C-alpha cells in the first residue's frame, strides 16, 4: 500500500503540521515524564493501527533511552512487570481515551482516580492533551496511508524546522 498523499510536501498540510507540532511542544515541555509521553503515544498508536506513529514513537523512545523490553511490552502492559504504577495509570488512560467508541463511559472513574493518584494537575493536563493529540496524529497518518518503517529519530522535528 502506497501513501495516498504526502502531507510533508503539501504547503497547507505543512502549515497545519507546524501548528500541530507547536501544540505538541506544550506537552513535550510539560512536567509529564518524557518516557511516559512516548509510552502513551506508542500505545494509542498501536490501538489505532498507525504504523507511521508506532515507528516514530518506538524510535524516539529508544533514542531517549527507553529499553527494548519495555517497548516490546507496551501492547501487553497489563500482563507485564516493567511499568510503574504511574505509567500503568497513564497507559490505561491512553487506552480508554483512544477507544471512546468502544466504551459508553469513556474514561472510567477507576482509571481517572489512578491518574489523579499519580500525577499533579499540570501532568494530568499534559496527559489529556497528549492523548487527544496522538489520536489526531494517528488519524492524519492512517487516512493518507502514511506507512511506518522509514522513520529516523529526529526526522519529524527536522521536517518542521
Automatic annotation (TrEMBL):
GO terms for molecular function: peroxiredoxin activity. InterPro entries: AhpD-like, AhpD_core, CMD-like. It comes from the Bacteria. Signal peptide: none annotated. Coiled coil: none annotated. Keywords: Oxidoreductase, Peroxidase. The keyword 4Fe-4S does not apply. Residues 16-96 form the Carboxymuconolactone decarboxylase-like domain. It holds the Pfam family CMD. The keyword Endoplasmic reticulum does not apply. This is Alkylhydroperoxidase AhpD family core domain-containing protein. It comes from Micromonospora carbonacea.
Amino acid at each position: 500500500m502506497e501513501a495516498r498523499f504526502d502531507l510533508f510536501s503539501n504547503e497547507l498540510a505543512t502549515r497545519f503540521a507546524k501548528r500541530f507540532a507547536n501544540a505538541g511542544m506544550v506537552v513535550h515541555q510539560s512536567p509529564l515524564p518524557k518516557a511516559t509521553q512516548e509510552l502513551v503515544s506508542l500505545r494509542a498508536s498501536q490501538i489505532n493501527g498507525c504504523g507511521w506513529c508506532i515507528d516514530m514513537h518506538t524510535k524516539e523512545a529508544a533514542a531517549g533511552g527507553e529499553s527494548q523490553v519495555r517497548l516490546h511490552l507496551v501492547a501487553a502492559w497489563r500482563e507485564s512487570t516493567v511499568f510503574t504504577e504511574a505509567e500503568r495509570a497513564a497507559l490505561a488512560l491512553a487506552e480508554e481515551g483512544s477507544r471512546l467508541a468502544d466504551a459508553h463511559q469513556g474514561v472510567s472513574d477507576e482509571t481517572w482516580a489512578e491518574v489523579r493518584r499519580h500525577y499533579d494537575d499540570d501532568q494530568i493536563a499534559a496527559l489529556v492533551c497528549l492523548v487527544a493529540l496522538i489520536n489526531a496524529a494517528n488519524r492524519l497518518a492512517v487516512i493518507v496511508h502514511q506507512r511506518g518503517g522509514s522513520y529516523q529519530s529526529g526526522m519529524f522535528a527536522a521536517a518542521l524546522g
